[in-house]
Amino acid sequence: MTDPTRPEDTARVVRSDAEWRALLPDLAYRVTRRHATERPFSHENFPAGPGRFACVCCGAVLFDKAQKYDSGSGWPSFWAPAAPDAIGERSDNSLFMRRTEVHCARCEAHLGHVFPDGPEPTGLRYCINGVALRFEPAGQGTG
Predict the structure, then answer these.
(1) Pick from 100, 106, 107, 94: which is nearest to 128 by CA?
(2) Cβ contacts of residue 79 below 8 Å, gap of 6+?
(3) Which residues are catalytic?
(4) Is position 1 within any domain?
(5) Under DSSP, is residue 131 helix (H, G, I), strand (E, B) or coil?
(6) Is 36 exposed, middle or buried (0-12, 13-18, 19+ CB in 10 A)?
(7) Tens digit of each residue's pLDDT, the chain (143 residues)
(8) N or C: which end of the chain has fewer CB atoms below 10 A?
């Protein structure tokens, strides 16, 4: 697990396509490196209890369990990232829609999209592919 307060854990992670393909299970590769989307309601629920969600590709901390909520969308949803600089955004005009794609700021793994229909205090819904995340319970290196 990375710690964004340590400079050595914020360095960019760059790998070739072949390296990513070898490191990741097929669905995780297709979602994070090829911008695919897992089917809604297809990702098993994450364990109960406090913890953090890390990028399946590079281990960067992306979301905290305290910001997770059930949006009913079929994908894990969060109202804020773990830190403002953990997530990058770019415009996504695919599928004849205008959306904001979100990716891991450290390795640029595609995570999902952010929408302006979430709960307070941010009003945002980070709609994330579960296969792009690895849950780490509190007390197991996550603090």
Answers:
(1) 100
(2) 67, 69, 118, 119, 120, 121, 122, 124, 125, 126
(3) 127
(4) no
(5) helix
(6) middle
(7) 444 444 445 678 999 999 999 999 999 999 999 999 999 988 776 777 899 999 999 999 999 999 999 998 989 999 999 999 999 988 766 665 677 899 999 999 999 999 999 999 999 999 999 999 999 999 765 44
(8) C
Do residues 102 and 126 touch, judged by C-beta distance below 8 A?
yes
**Residue 142 in domain:** no
- Read off the tokens for 142: 């996550």
Instruction: Note if the bond before 7 is cis, omega within 30 degrees.
Output: no
Structural domain total, the chain: 1
pLDDT at 100: 86
CATH number of domain containing 126: 2.170.150.20
The residue range of the domain holding 23 is 7-137
Nearest to 129 by CA among 117, 109, 112: 112
